[in-house]
Write a structure and sequence with these properties.
This protein is of the alpha/beta class and 376 residues long. Strands 1-2-11-12-13-10-9-8-7-6-5-14-15-16 form a 14-stranded mixed beta sheet. A hairpin with a 3-residue loop joins strand 11 and strand 12. The longest helix is centred in the middle third of the chain and has 14 residues. The protein is globular. Bound molecules: iron/sulfur cluster (SF4). The site of iron/sulfur cluster has 10 residues, from loops.
């Protein structure tokens, strides 16, 4: 769907705040348009009513659906991995710990039929789906088979650390391309091998850890499907304006046209102080600080053209355009806001978990909309 744009001068005039950033006044001056991905509650055109098991739900527009990939443990062990963050007040299974059973794809097919005609896009994420090419290919087949009796598909994105695209690139790219994937978001948190592997800690035998293999795979993938590089900024990684420029130059050499710099999600106090949380707290690079130091440089101000600000339901980002057409995005999100949205009863996100629960969120035993036993 086309995301409605709001004139930022109008927001300033009405003193309406939209971006949770201390740079908001400056950003509102620089950007003339704000894309409202977060649907206003009163705007009926942004909520799709749909009945599941006799109950009417209201689905946000736009909406994403994730068949959560957890067929095997991830090939990386990123120090900040959100799959290893736990909330003290949560009960039930953890999505990353569940493995799909033999009926998984049949149940997914049924869930897709339950969502018949709901407008959404596929967001293929979870653990690393490319680690198990058989699982990923069967997933794509299942999604494709839903056809006219499934949801109304508006697009599809694959999130990856690239591991399987190094080992099974030819097969996976053919399948993803046949599927009609819109683009790939490829996580690589530093432009050099050593610091990147300090952060991502690929398991033994993963060729993607090596710079030459990763670069060859990114370039080969980008020749088939657009690759957006995702760099989660952090101490020991990309932390300063000079690092940003160097990372962008590196991305250019691979033919990549979009780079996203993302802050660790803000974590409410309900998240346990485990090793991941302590890493996130001690290595956080605030996107406001990084963006402010970029904006201080004449090079950034004179080279990059502000394009659009986006306000999502638990994130915001600022998108800039370089003279050669490269898109550069700075992004921040907040898990507290994400959970608050999950509790509204409105549907902001759909996840199909390995336990075959279709949920309105990332917890496999909460906000359950449908499960196979619900079939008549
Ligand atoms: S690649 Fe993703 S799922 Fe795997 S460890 Fe890193 S952040 Fe976690």
């Amino acid at each position: 769907m086309r995301i409605p744009l709001v004139d930022t001068r109008e927001l300033v005039r009405r003193k309406v705040a939209r971006i949770d950033s201390r740079l908001q006044p400056q950003l509102m001056q620089l950007f003339h348009q704000l894309a409202l991905r977060d649907p206003p509650r009163e705007d009926k055109s942004r909520w799709y009513p749909h009945t599941i098991s006799g109950r009417v739900h209201h689905f946000a527009r736009p909406l994403t659906f994730t068949p959560y990939a957890s067929a095997r443990p991830c090939s990386a062990r990123c120090r900040f991995c959100s799959e290893t963050l736990y909330e003290s007040n949560r009960t039930g299974s953890k999505a990353a710990a569940l493995r799909p059973g033999p009926r998984y794809f049949d149940a997914l097919g049924s869930a897709l039929r339950v969502l018949r005609d709901v407008p959404l896009s596929y967001s293929l994420s979870g653990l690393e789906s490319t680690d198990d090419p058989d699982w990923l290919c069967q997933l794509l087949d299942t999604l494709q088979s839903a056809g006219d009796v499934g949801p109304a598909i508006e697009g599809s994105v694959l999130y990856t650390n690239g591991a399987g695209l190094v080992h099974h690139g030819e097969r996976l790219l053919a399948a993803l391309s046949d599927f009609g994937l819109s683009w790939i978001e490829w996580s690589r948190h530093h432009d050099a091998e050593g610091p990147n592997d300090q952060i991502m800690r690929f398991r033994l035998g993963q060729a993607v850890a090596q710079q030459a293999d990763a670069e060859a795979a990114i370039a080969a993938t980008n020749a088939v499907l657009p690759v957006k590089l995702v760099c989660v900024v952090q101490q020991g990684g990309i932390a300063q304006a000079d690092d940003v420029w160097r990372y962008l130059s590196w991305a250019r050499t691979l033919g990549v046209r979009t780079v996203i710099f993302r802050e660790f999600s803000a974590l409410p106090s309900t998240y346990q102080s485990n090793v991941t949380r302590r890493y996130v707290d001690s290595h956080r690079v605030c996107i406001d600080d990084l963006l402010a130091s970029c904006l201080d440089s004449a090079r950034f101000r004179h080279t990059l053209e502000p394009e659009v600000l986006t306000h999502g339901y638990y994130f915001w980002n600022a998108r800039w355009r370089a003279p050669d057409g490269m898109t550069v995005v700075f992004e921040r999100s907040d898990y507290g806001t994400l959970h608050a949205c999950e509790h509204t009863g409105l549907i902001y996100k759909l996840v199909f978990h390995a336990n075959e629960h279709l949920c309105a969120g990332w917890q496999p035993d909460q906000h359950i909309l449908w499960r196979p036993d619900d079939l008549p």
